[in-house]
């Protein structure tokens, strides 16, 4: 298998395409790249099983999967090699994604990631594809492959959903299952504000990572991982009760940071910090830690963030005395209702600093401050610096 792995590495380096290979009877397969969405992985399991049903020899198969995916397949010396997916033209997948959404349990985030993966598959023109098929076959069998089989490659349309029972059993042996268990633990820890567990899990997740040798493809692969982690962490923080505007601001900031990265080590450090940052915001902003009365009070403040509700207004809405509300609110948040309201207004104004609509006069009016001067005063009390200095630090 080691010799086959070397050949798979070469193919990956030449084509920038995932390569899967397996030995008949081993019950497992290996991949040069390991970042495929679950639906694509399952298709790969089906195709490997199909290749093992084909006669052994020097014939390279052109296999067809879902979403216009193409693969090269070869069965030789009790080994199966699957190269792909790639495609022959760029396609709009919006209708396909709608059909998948209606007929599967995938979330919208998972669908977005699947579509992103499909749009980034390599594109081979038909004539070039035939030459690459010859290269694949010649490298694997250490000899020239039969060119006649390349001129008109046989096609096999695979329908991997629903996945066959054998494929499910095959998939259960793969490291992907452990990966999803780990991912679920990380998201649960974010939701519960368990920073220590988040940091420990992320440290473990990077302990045995596999980064390809080709730097450009490795960077693309790692960016896919970063986008995935940001998207899932966003959902976990939102589900924990963090203000959607704060979550959206943090998510957009990470999207821009990921896009700017061109160094593998810096990108890995960024990924490690994403869940921890969301977790810290859960600890700071989540409402789950508060009693019902305080949660309802904070919700009212958020819903009326562009005006100013008095303690009396909130107490009346909640049908409690203002004395009881003031006492309970300060006990649980450490702040008076007035102080908490001002702090929340400033935090929600942060994303707008430096934007076209984000001059101080507009922000003061938008968030219910009596003047721009009072906005600046409260801003400095909350953030420790003036709006101008804060914006300069966080451009």
TrEMBL record:
Q: Which Gene3D superfamilies match?
A: Homeodomain-like
Segments forming domain HTH araC/xylS-type? 295-393
Q: Which SUPFAM superfamilies match?
A: Homeodomain-like (SSF46689)
Keyword tags: DNA-binding, Transcription, Transcription regulation
MF terms (GO), sorted A to Z: DNA-binding transcription factor activity; sequence-specific DNA binding
The answer to keyword ATP-binding applying to this record is no
Protein name per its UniProtKB record: HTH araC/xylS-type domain-containing protein
Q: Which organism was this protein described from?
A: Photobacterium rosenbergii
